[in-house]
Amino acid sequence: MRTKGKLTLQVVAFCWHFTSLRYKFYIMQIKPPLVSYCEQVRNLPPDDPDRKHHDHVHGFAVKDDNELFGRLIMEINQAGLNWTLILKKEENFRRAFEGFDILKVAAYGEDDKSRLLADAGIIRNRRKVDAVIHNAGVIRGLQREYGSFSSWLDHHHPMGIDGWVRLFKKTFRFTGPEIVNEWLMSTGYLPGAHREDCPVYDKVIRSGPEWLKL
Ligand SMILES: [Zn+2]
């Protein structure tokens, strides 16, 4: 029995390791390392959507539940599309999803789905719209249980990307490894949003991102 148990453990450990490697490979393949975002925006004008996002949003600590949810909406909608396109539509998303109000979005029914799928200002993708509404309902549950979405995240922090990916997979819809990784870096739960020589790096540190509190 011991030998059998040991073998099972070895098989499980191998599968775990393989899955972990696969996620890392997947993340590396899909997008170039996020640190390149700093270089990518360096020569863009200050009012460029990517430059503004990089200088004032990306990697800064976020504590407001609706903003965290809004950022998740953006990441989910980016899947398979260009990030700049999503940034240009940010205000449209904010308007369409009523200021990213979790309570309101969680209550969306068929009329709201039809409205969203007819809104040319956002991404008209049924799976993404359904996932956003479903996830709003899940976040409402987390708010009831933990006090806030932010507290639920803090409860699990610190955790490596593999753990976060598994947690998000069993908790939410449409949150694959790339989306989870981007979202956690963007909201300050994982390091790596900016290069240390980026002019914005110190400002991000001063905002108190969670990854600093290990
Ligand atoms: Zn940067």
If you had to describe this structure to a student in words, what would you say it looks like?
Helices cover 65% and strands 0% of the residues. The chain is mainly α and 214 residues long. It has a single domain (31-212), classed as Hypothetical protein, domain 2 (Endonuclease III, domain 1), CATH 1.10.340. The structure holds zinc ion. Zinc ion binds at residues 38, 54, 194-195, 198, 200.
Walk me through the topology.
Elements: H1 2-30, H2 36-41, H3 49-56, H4 65-78, H5 83-88, H6 90-96, H7 102-106, H8 110-117, H9 126-146, H10 149-156, H11 161-171, H12 177-186, H13 201-206
This protein binds zinc ion.
The site of zinc ion has 6 residues, from loops.
List keywords for this structure.
mainly alpha, 65% helix, disordered N terminus, Endonuclease III, domain 1
Please provide a brief summary of the model.
This protein has 214 residues and is mostly helical. It has helices at residues 2-30, 36-41, 49-56, 65-78, 83-88, 90-96, 102-106, 110-117, 126-146, 149-156, 161-171, 177-186, 201-206.
Number of domains: 1
Which structural class do the helices and strands define? Answer: mainly alpha
Radius of gyration, whole Å: 19 Å
Helix content percent band: 55-70%
CATH class: Mainly Alpha
Q: What portion of residues belong to β-strands?
A: under 5%
What is the H-and-E element order?
Answer: HHHHHHHHHHHHH
CATH topology: Endonuclease III, domain 1
Contiguous uncertain segments of 5+ residues: 1-5, 25-32
Overall average pLDDT: 89
Estimate the global geometry from the Cα principal axes.
globular
- Counting DSSP H or I runs of 4 or more residues, the number of helices is 13
Please provide the count of β strands. 0
For the termini, the CA-CA separation is 40 Å
